[in-house]
Amino acid sequence: TQLLEQSPQFLSIQEGENLTVYCNSSSVFSSLQWYRQEPGEGPVLLVTVVTGGEVKKLKRLTFQFGDARKDSSLHITAAQTGDTGLYLCAGKNNDMRFGAGTRLTVKP
Amino acid sequence: ETGVTQSPTHLIKTRGQQVTLRCSSQSGHNTVSWYQQALGQGPQFIFQYYREEENGRGNFPPRFSGLQFPNYSSELNVNALELDDSALYLCASSEGGPSIQNYGYTFGSGTRLTVV
Questions:
Q1: Given a cut of 80, is residue B96 above it in pLDDT?
Q2: Using CB atoms, which residue from A6, A42, A97 is nearest to B90?
Q3: Which of A35, A76, B41, B47 has CB 3.0 to 4.6 Å from B57, enough for a Cys bridge?
């Protein structure tokens, strides 16, 4: 059983569309991080959110940490083909645990 | 030195053998974690080391063991390899200690282990 559940598991959209992916848990985390992973590479950190209710924006990406610090969402506006990849959320207390990821494909 | 370097990049071993995977972290990164990532899945936490002591462990048997050295390098050792151990093994390091929440992890590109 995954500590963090990510949905959807797969997402295929056209360039220019908006999308939201979700990360949910029954556990409370001190912080939550989002990573993107390309094939054959390690995950690359996108953002860390620490405070319940926190919203962070990174260009076209908006990240939100739930008020109870159990869940998070990632919203991408006007997706581009370069956004294609595996998006992973990770909850941290003493150590960091990952969800199974959302595999995003953005078609031209 | 910048970034996290893992070696080897690919490895093929026979069932029952032992393997050592190596990781070189950035200077000052005194927390290192190891993950196992099966194809199509998210990384599974194996264990974490902080200042050369094991600081947390996931649901992996004792045949998975590790070491962290003062020069910011670390090792993952796996004994009695099984076919299911075939996966990408990722090393990640952080400048902050385990209780520091706003530091991200820097990952290496991983070692692809195939057990035949």
A1: no
A2: A42
A3: B47
